[in-house]
Amino acid sequence: MTPRIEPPLMGEPYLLTPGPLTTSAAVKQAMLRDWGSWDGDFRAMTAEMRERLVAMFGRGGEAFECVPMQGSGTFAVEAMLGTFVPRNGKALVLANGAYGKRSAEVLRYLGRDVEVLDKGDYLPPRGAEVAEILARDQAITHVVAVHCETSSGILNPVEEIAEAVAAAGRRLLIDSMSAFGAIDLPPETVPYEALVSSANKCIEGVPGFGFVLARREALKTAAGRSTSLSLDLHAQWAHMEKTGQWRFTPPTHAVAAFLEALRAHEAEGGVAGRGARYARNRDVMVAGMRDLGFETLLEARWLSPIIVTFFCPANPRFAFDRFYDLMKRRGFIIYPGKLTVVDSFRIGCIGQMDEDVMRRVVVAAKEALTEMGVTSAAPPEEALQERAKLAA
Ligand SMILES: *Cc1c(COP(=O)(O)O)cnc(C)c1O
């Protein structure tokens, strides 16, 4: 089924960013009324949302509970880590970018013992490395992995990581913020305790809350672990089970928008349909950008269908800020890079966009280069040397 992709309202630019992202008119319209947080109508909306999210796992979802949490995605990450890692536990965080590092920082704030496997800007943490660390350090109770590390756009090998963690008898917590809803992580075949995502990523809702999908058995034993009142996931779950309500003021409009987004996600063919559209977006955009001379940071096998990092061209006439403005004038908001070694920028593939939009992105990039007087978008030699490390 080909979903209908609508252009943004009133000439607003496309957000080629990994959330907030471009949402449909129907999602925006769903917010044009008010709901009482205690009212039966809103409680039914919360219940439907939680059921729909768990149902995305299919049969494997029967062992899972969905607990939404107010705030941006990081609030939900903090809630998950603080509720599942015991106060006397120890976490191994697998980091290859800003989001892995943030999880480690959250754990330090929470006073949990942390070890970090830091792979730098974009090298993937591998199952064998994880197995080796777990064998040497019996104190580690939990491993924290990032599914798609949105800093570089790398799709980390969570399947082999999950296997290594399960083989060592430890528990895995996954930050699937930017991947959930577009990249399958079936809990029957990939063992993990919980994953976290948020409303404004691949489900294509608006910002306002995150949610944790956790094994019921793990949640049941997590009472009293949190050192935060508002971010206690067990307390939020217990209250929701009992009353159908959120513990504190819920983001009512964002929930209404999200329900609309979940219906559209199902109509598009669920995770498989959504992931296929994003993969086409990426393929069309990357091929077009390569034709202009741009190079991706990552080789094809590590490129996620979520966001792609490109090296800035070596040509001295290229300036990212100018490129950004020229792209914005053409209706596209792009994203600066986060690499420490070489200059880069990122283009997101998620949101209400299809391959036709991505072709227009490439045309806009071509025009922007021409306007700057950049004849070739080829990256500097250091960039290609940097990339060769990944192949080694
Ligand atoms: C978006 C994102 C988050 C959460 O970021 P917020 O700004 O708090 O919403 C966490 N992890 C990853 C991998 C993300 O892409």
Structure report:
The protein is built from 13 helices and 14 strands. The protein is globular, with a radius of gyration of 21 Å. The longest helix is centred in the C-terminal third of the chain and has 22 residues, at 270-291. It folds into two domains: 10-18 and 270-391, Alpha-Beta Complex (Aspartate Aminotransferase, domain 1); 25-267, Aspartate Aminotransferase, domain 2. α4 links the parallel β3 (90-95) and β4. The chain starts with 13 loop residues before the first strand and ends with a helix. 40% of the residues lie in helices and 16% in strands. It is an alpha/beta fold and 392 residues long.
CATH topology assignment of the largest domain: Aspartate Aminotransferase, domain 2
Cofactors and ligands present? pyridoxal-5'-phosphate
Average of per-residue pLDDT values: 95
Task: Indicate the overall shape.
Answer: globular
- Number of E-type strands: 14
The assigned structural class equals alpha/beta
Largest sheet data: 7 strands, mixed
* DSSP summary: helix tally: 13
- Classify the beta-strand content into a percent band: 15-25%
Distance between the termini: 41 Å
The largest beta-sheet arranges its strands as 2-10-9-8-5-3-4
- Supply the CATH superfamily name of the largest domain: Type I PLP-dependent aspartate aminotransferase-like (Major domain)
